[in-house]
Amino acid sequence: MALRLEQKTIESWKRAMQSFLPHYINADLELPKTYKYKVGFLFDFFTWTVNWANIKYDVGTFDFTDIKFDLVSNFAEPMMKIDFPAFKSWKLEADQTIDTWMLPETSKVTLQFTDFDFDINC
């Protein structure tokens, strides 16, 4: 299989993602307002449920223009490396309830992504 990438094509893709994805994530994507996760320990001998309610998402700042594509050859095998700096900042807030029999707790939690970056090798 052959793959031909040109700088003009990559730059067009970056511009399209920069205009589409932030709007989709901030406005159109139906992110959950509540979420529940069940945790088991010691073969589910101890179990508890973590509930998040009233989840609020700040308007995120996304960066798709700094994506870097590298075409490399590792041990005579062609690879594509992608450096993907996705989020400049994004913040989530929620009310968390943990229903353990030992230490039940309710509190506010905040999850904040700042300069979130991930790399892909394929």
Please tell me about this protein's structure.
With 122 residues, the chain is an alpha+beta fold. The chain has one domain. The protein contains one helix and six strands; from the N terminus they run αββββββ. It has one helix spanning 7-28, and strands spanning 35-41, 46-57, 61-62, 68-74, 77-98, 105-121. Strands 1, 2, 3, 4, 5 and 6 form a six-stranded antiparallel β-sheet that branches. A hairpin with a 2-residue loop joins strand 4 and strand 5 (77-98). It is elongated. It starts with 6 loop residues before the first helix and ends with a strand. 1% of the residues are buried. The mean pLDDT is 80.
Blueprint (SSEs and pairs):
Blueprint: H1 7-28, E1 35-41, E2 46-57, E3 61-62, E4 68-74, E5 77-98, E6 105-121
Antiparallel strand pairs: 1-2, 2-5, 3-5, 4-5, 5-6
Instruction: Give the domain tally.
Output: 1
Give the low-pLDDT segments: none
Major sheet description = 6 strands, antiparallel
Number of contiguous helices: 1
* pLDDT averaged residue by residue: 80
Strand content: over 45%
Strand tally is: 6
Shape label:
elongated
Radius of gyration: 20 Å
Structural class: alpha+beta
Quaternary form: single chain
Assign a percent range to the helix content. 10-25%
Order of helices and strands: HEEEEEE
N→C terminal distance: 14 Å
Give a short synopsis of this structure.
By secondary structure, the chain is of the alpha+beta class. The chain contains one helix and six strands; from the N terminus they run H-E-E-E-E-E-E.
